[in-house]
C-alpha cells in the first residue's frame, strides 16, 4: 500500500518536472494559445473583439503589457494529478484545512473522521468557498482575520460515509454535517520570520454553523411567513446553509450568502406544494429524500411538509428563512449574526459591494441556477466613513432590482417594489415582504433576463466597471432561449459579462454591457480524432483556455482573477485539464493561467492583503489526495496561501 502510494507520487513528481517548465514542454493546446495571442496582437484582434457585445471598449484590445507579469502555467491533463502548480517564482502553501483546530479546546484533526459533532463544531468546516481577509489597522499587511465559508459537506466527513439505516439518517451524523457547514473566523499573523501563521486559541476565532442562532432583520422579521413550530416569533433562525460566496461591507462586516438551501428541504404534500411559490419556484424536493442529505429523516425542522395539527403548520415555512445574506461582525466574536431580508430571497452566490464617491452603494448578486437572474440591492442610506457605527443596519432598508440585458447592449435595473410593475396582490404579491420572499417570481413578472447560471460578481476598484461570471448552462429550457448576453445554445464553457452603470454611479438604473469573453477552447482546436471541435465549444479568450468561470475578484491593482469550477472528469472537459486560477487584464483582455489545482477540485474563494503581496485561495473538494495543512496527504478542502518568492506583489 505504502509502496504503491510512493510510486504514485514518484510518477506525479516526474510529471511535475514537465509541468513547471512551460517554455520547454508546452502542450499542443498551449502552443495553439500562444499562436492565437500573436494573431490577436495584429489587426485581427480589433475585428474579433468588435464582434462581441455592445463594443463599449473594443479599443481596449490595444496591447498593454502592464498588469500580468508572470509566466503562465500549462494545463494539467493527468487523471491522477494531485498537486497545486503555481507560476514560476511563487509558492503555494496549504494553510487551513477541514478539521483544523479553530477554537482553543478543539481536538487535533484525527484523520479517520471519528470526530463527534461537538468536535467538528470547534474545527474548520468542510468545502471552503468564499473568503475575506480583514486587516487589523495597525499592521494591515501582517495581521488580520481570515473569514471562510464552508459551503457543504463531503461523504468523507464520516468514517463510513453518508449512511441511511431503514431510510433514516442518524441524528449525530446530521448534527456533525450541520456543524461542518457555515463560517470560520480565524486570526492570522506573520511570525518573526515573516511567515503567516494561524493564531491558535485567539479570542476572535469562531465557528458559525447550521446550529448557530441568528437574528432575522428587515421586512420579513417577525412576518407571518417566517413563523414555525420551533420559532413562533419569526425572529430567530437556527443557522445558515450552503454559504457559497460572500461580500464585505465598508463598515467592516462579512456577508455570507446562502446558495443552494433548497436542497436541504422536502415538502411531501402535492396539493400544498403546487400552490406554494416559495417552495415550487426554488425547486424544493417533493418526494424521496432531500438532496442534501436527508436531514429531514433525523431533524424535523427540514421536513417542510405542512402538518396542520402543529403551530404554524410545523416547519412548512422553514425554507422561507434561508436564501438570504448573513451579516457577521468578525471583530466581535460575541455578536449574533443577522440574517438580512431586505435583500431578497433566491439561491444567492455572492454579495459584491460597489461603493460610490458619495457613500451610496450597490450590492450585486448572482442567482446561480440555470436561467435565473442577476440582482442588485441599493441601501436607502449612505455610508459615512467618519461614523461607521451608524451604518450598522444599512442593509435593512433599500431597493432590490433585477437586471434586464437588452440585445442592443443597453441594460435596465427593474425595481422589485410592491405595487409597481405588476407586483400587486392580484398577481400574488400582497406586500413588499412577499415580493422579497419570492424574488424570482417577481423577476419573472418584470421581464428580467434569464442568465447562464450567474456566479460571482466583481467591481473594479477604481472604474467601478462590474463583471459577472456566467458559469455554464447545458439545459436552457424551452422558455429561456438564447439572447445576446447568453448567446450559446448548449453552453458548456460559460462566459464573463461586464457593464458600466450610467455615470459610473452604482445606484443608477441603466447600464451598458458587453461580453468580456466566451470561455472555451481556442480557435482551430481539434479533438483527439483530429476533428474540428464544434463551434459551440470554441471561446473568444485572448490567452489561456479555460471553462466554467466561477470565482471572480479584482486585486488592489485592478487585475481580474478568475477561478474555474467544472467537472474535470467529464469527457467534454478532457481538453481543458484540471480546474484553475487565471488572471486577466481588463484593458487588453489578455488571460493567463496562474495556478492549476488537483484533479476533482474547484478553485474558489480569493482574498488579498491590502498590499497585494499575500493571497489566499481555496481548493474545494479535491478528488484525490492533496497535502493538507498538517502535511499529510488526504482529500481535504484547504485554504492555500500564495506568496511571491521575492516578496513582490502577486501577479506583477
Ligand atoms: Fe456554490 Fe454557484 O457555486
Ligand atoms: Ca461558486
Ligand atoms: Ca460553480
Ligand atoms: Ca462548489
UniProtKB/TrEMBL annotation:
Pfam family of the protein (one): PhoX
Protein name: Tat pathway signal protein
Location of region: Disordered: 472-491
InterPro entries: 6-blade_b-propeller_TolB-like, PhoX, TAT_signal
Superkingdom in the source lineage: Bacteria
Amino acid at each position: 500500500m505504502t509502496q504503491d502510494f510512493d510510486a504514485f507520487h514518484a510518477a506525479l513528481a516526474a510529471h511535475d518536472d514537465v509541468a513547471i517548465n512551460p517554455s520547454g514542454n508546452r502542450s499542443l493546446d498551449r502552443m495553439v494559445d500562444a499562436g492565437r495571442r500573436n494573431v490577436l496582437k495584429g489587426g485581427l484582434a480589433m475585428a474579433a473583439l468588435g464582434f462581441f457585445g455592445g463594443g463599449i471598449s473594443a479599443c481596449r484590445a490595444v496591447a498593454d503589457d502592464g498588469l500580468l507579469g508572470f509566466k503562465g502555467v500549462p494545463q494539467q491533463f493527468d487523471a491522477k494529478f494531485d498537486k497545486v502548480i503555481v507560476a514560476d517564482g511563487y509558492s503555494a502553501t496549504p494553510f487551513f484545512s477541514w478539521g483544523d483546530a479553530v477554537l482553543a479546546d478543539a481536538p487535533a484533526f484525527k484523520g479517520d473522521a471519528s470526530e463527534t459533532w461537538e468536535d467538528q463544531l470547534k474545527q474548520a468546516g468542510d468545502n471552503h468557498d468564499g473568503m475575506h481577509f480583514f486587516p487589523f489597522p495597525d499592521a494591515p499587511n501582517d495581521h488580520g482575520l481570515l473569514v471562510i465559508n464552508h459551503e457543504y459537506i463531503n461523504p468523507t466527513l464520516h468514517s463510513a460515509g453518508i449512511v441511511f439505516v431503514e431510510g433514516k439518517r442518524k441524528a449525530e451524523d446530521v448534527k456533525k454535517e450541520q456543524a461542518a457547514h457555515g463560517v470560520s473566523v480565524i486570526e492570522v499573523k506573520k511570525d518573526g520570520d515573516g511567515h503567516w501563521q494561524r493564531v491558535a486559541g485567539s479570542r476572535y476565532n469562531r465557528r458559525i454553523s447550521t446550529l448557530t442562532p441568528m437574528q432575522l432583520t428587515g421586512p420579513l422579521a417577525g412576518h407571518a411567513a417566517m413563523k414555525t413550530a420551533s420559532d413562533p416569533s419569526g425572529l430567530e433562525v437556527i443557522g445558515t446553509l450552503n454559504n457559497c460566496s460572500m461580500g464585505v461591507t465598508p463598515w467592516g462586516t462579512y456577508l455570507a450568502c446562502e446558495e443552494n438551501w433548497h436542497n436541504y428541504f422536502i415538502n411531501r404534500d402535492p396539493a400544498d406544494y403546487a400552490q406554494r411559490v416559495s417552495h415550487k419556484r426554488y425547486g424544493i424536493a417533493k418526494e424521496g429524500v432531500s438532496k442534501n442529505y436527508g436531514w429531514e429523516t433525523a431533524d424535523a425542522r427540514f421536513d417542510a411538509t405542512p402538518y396542520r395539527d402543529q403551530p404554524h403548520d410545523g416547519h412548512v415555512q422553514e425554507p422561507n428563512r434561508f436564501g438570504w445574506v448573513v451579516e457577521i461582525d468578525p471583530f466581535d466574536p460575541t455578536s449574533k449574526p443577522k440574517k438580512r431580508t431586505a435583500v431578497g430571497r433566491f439561491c444567492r452566490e455572492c454579495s459584491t459591494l460597489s461603493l460610490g464617491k458619495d457613500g451610496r452603494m450597490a450590492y450585486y448578486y448572482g442567482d446561480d441556477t440555470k436561467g435565473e437572474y442577476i440582482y442588485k440591492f441599493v441601501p436607502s442610506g449612505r455610508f459615512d466613513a467618519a461614523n461607521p457605527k451608524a451604518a450598522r443596519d444599512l442593509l435593512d432598508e433599500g431597493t432590490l432590482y433585477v437586471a434586464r440585458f437588452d440585445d442592443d447592449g443597453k441594460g435596465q435595473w427593474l425595481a422589485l417594489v410592491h405595487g409597481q410593475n405588476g407586483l400587486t396582490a392580484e398577481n400574488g404579491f400582497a406586500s413588499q415582504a412577499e415580493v422579497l420572499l419570492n424574488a424570482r417570481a417577481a423577476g419573472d413578472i418584470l421581464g428580467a433576463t434569464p442568465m447562464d447560471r450567474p456566479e460571482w460578481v466583481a467591481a473594479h476598484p477604481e472604474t467601478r466597471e462590474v463583471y459577472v461570471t456566467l458559469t455554464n448552462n447545458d439545459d436552457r429550457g424551452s422558455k429561456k432561449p438564447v439572447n445576446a448576453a447568453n448567446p450559446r445554445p448548449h453552453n458548456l464553457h460559460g462566459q464573463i459579462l461586464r457593464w458600466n452603470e450610467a455615470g459610473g454611479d452604482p445606484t443608477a438604473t441603466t447600464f451598458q454591457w458587453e461580453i468580456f469573453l466566451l470561455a472555451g477552447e481556442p480557435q482551430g482546436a481539434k479533438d483527439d480524432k483530429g476533428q474540428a471541435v464544434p463551434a459551440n465549444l470554441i471561446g473568444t479568450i485572448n490567452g489561456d483556455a479555460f471553462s466554467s468561470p466561477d470565482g471572480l475578484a479584482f486585486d488592489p491593482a485592478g487585475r481580474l482573477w478568475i477561478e474555474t469550477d467544472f467537472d474535470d472528469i467529464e469527457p467534454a472537459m478532457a481538453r481543458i485539464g484540471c480546474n484553475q486560477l487565471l488572471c486577466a487584464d481588463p484593458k487588453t483582455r489578455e488571460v493567463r493561467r496562474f495556478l492549476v489545482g488537483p484533479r476533482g477540485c474547484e478553485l474558489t474563494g480569493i482574498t488579498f492583503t491590502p498590499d497585494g503581496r499575500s493571497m489566499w485561495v481555496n481548493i474545494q473538494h479535491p478528488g484525490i489526495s492533496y497535502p493538507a495543512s498538517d502535511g499529510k496527504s488526504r482529500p481535504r478542502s484547504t485554504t492555500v496561501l500564495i506568496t511571491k518568492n521575492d516578496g513582490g506583489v502577486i501577479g506583477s
